[in-house]
Design goal:
This protein starts with a helix and ends in a 9-residue tail after the last strand. Among the domains are: 119 residues, no CATH class; 105 residues, no CATH class. By secondary structure, it is an alpha+beta fold. The protein is built from 7 helices and 16 strands. Strand 6 and strand 7 form a beta hairpin. The strands form 4 sheets. The chain has a 6-stranded mixed beta sheet with strand order 4-2-1-5-6-7. Keywords: Signal.
Amino acid sequence: MSSTMLSIVYTIIVLLVLSTIKAAAAATNSSSSTLTSSETIHDRISRERRFVVYNSRRLTGECLPICSDDKPPSESPTIDNGDAMEACFCEANDYEWEQSWKCGDDEIYLCPGVADDKICSTQAEGSKLPMKYYSITEDQCNTMRSLEIGQRCINLPEYYGIDRNDDEAKIISSRVCYTNGGLGLFGMKQDDESCESCPSTIDVNFEVPIQDPNNDIIDEDAVVNTGGAMEACLCQADDYESEQSWKCGNDIYVCPGISDNKICSTQGSTNSKYFSITEDQCNEMRLREIGDKCLSLPEYGVTNPRGLSNRVCYKDFGLGINGMKQDDQSCDVCKSTINVDFEVPLP
């Protein structure tokens, strides 16, 4: 065979090989992009979804910036009950819930809608003095609602001794809001540092008012005969707040702050003598209990004093304005005052 014929045959063989390779490549591409008879639609979707998931992550497995959380960590709640501070909602100007307030270390004011057996068990915690509970009017309640923790409580003139000057009023240390469900069912207590749910309620005795809010004196006999009368009297030994007078036998010792026309009309007897004593002597008498021997008054010639049978405390308001007399069995209201002549000291 000539060389020319061999060259033609070789060329034809090369062309046939190239054509076969090209056809095989085309068939492969077609099968990769077309759903085959053995692949279901579910398989195809699953395969493509895995492809998308794979491409949404880095090779190291780290999350892409689009799914990272750039938010700062939230602050821990004050109490453990989730969004407790938000749930508390016990702040000034809250007119939705019934409330109570702790004033100073020994007083709690309560809105009229708070029953005496539904008081937050922890509001009185930390108090070293016996707690007193005052049920106030709706108007007084609304005034208290407007006050912040740390502001001064309002005066309660209808209760004996709660008629103070503005700079003497006690400070609000906590408030409790009572709701009808949730954490506030027993009360939600808020002070200047935290807000916590009250775990239970307690039953208390409300103080007995001496006057109504319009300063009209309530029936005096009813007041004196109530369980709170002796407490309302507040005329006992070691009382340095009020002016006082004492009956020693038939003699009446009178502090220097009491004038001769302001003496309790029921303290003395028909033949009583009245002695105006010094402030030091007055303070000595304040220490004496009913039944103790009275102080000698040598400037008046009283060297053998009798025992103390009663004392009278004089206030500037309420039932004590004419004097509140206490003996060993009772505490009575002085309904009027008398004018007396003080004894003259010896020369």
